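Example record

One chain of 366 residues, shown exactly as stored in the release files.
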Amino acid sequence: MSVILFIIILGILIFAHELGHFLAAKKFKIRVDEFALGFPPRVWAKKFGETVYALNILPLGGYVKIYGEDGDDGTAVDPKSSRKMSDAPRWKQAIILSSGIIGNIIFAWLILSIGFMAGLPTASSGPFGDRIKEQRLIITSIMPDSPAEDAGLKAGDQILAIQYNAETINNPDAEKAISLIGNAPDGSQIDFSILRQETTSTISAITEEGIVSAGKSGVGVSMEYIGTLQLSPIYAMVAGGYATVEMSKQVGIGLYSLIVDSIRGQADLSTVTGPVGIASLVGDAGKNGLASLLLLTAIISINLAAINLIPFPALDGGRLFFLAIEAVRRKALNPKFSQRANQIGFVLLLLLMAIITYKDIIRLIK
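Predicted structure tokens for this chain:
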């Protein structure tokens, strides 16, 4: 079920991305030869007008084949005006290339807005904090290779109580919990009473000095009050927009840090999740209910937009980078160079995907 749910969600996200390219090209009257979900071999295809709509067997991707996208030669359908993308003004080409990214951002906004109409888990520190109901102390993140991760604590766990020696704090607030853990000596056992998927259990973690801040003990968790926020359609659209912007900022910062660390040779690929890992996350979110699934879908959509913005061949960002070079040179790049660069970039992306998938499988086996 996790795999099926993942394929459905991925298909929807790819459709939103490719639909952005498709609509922008159609808006500027550029010929679109094919709109496909998945990669070949082909399962189904039907031509409507000038465009072939196809469904392929490999679900991890999709594409829109736009006439002249790579500067290839050909005869225009309309003899009075070329309908090649490469003949269009560069600002139109930039909009077409950016529209897939915009499509994913808009989709995330719509998903989050629908979520807020139904009721979505939200941090009390947001702009609608006074409207949040049923606030609970939730673990929002776990540091990799931390005592909390080793103990088995997970993001999403609700903290019911914290115990150190004879001191127990029931229904703790974040400040009291942080104070209790921070003041415990290095190597102390902290018992967390947590609620996970309607099951209560106790998990013990050993404190480590300096893991969070110098001179203080910690176990490597972030905690925040989370409650349910349900709004009318208008306010839900506003809250959805705010959440989309905030998520985009966090995703952008994280991706920038990863790229910088990669250049320095310090990247930690254990923090990167591929298709197998995402399928597992989707399965967990599905068990936690529709709200968690909507949140995860929005996060994946924003991540997809951010990754496509990277100026790397075969990605939309790479094509935008080539377009920027052409604008500076005032001359088109050699189509063969662009095609070869995109082909090499695509192969490198597949190789990276294979490495990340391997790490995902090893992580799941462990």
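Notes: The two ends are 21 Å apart (CA to CA).
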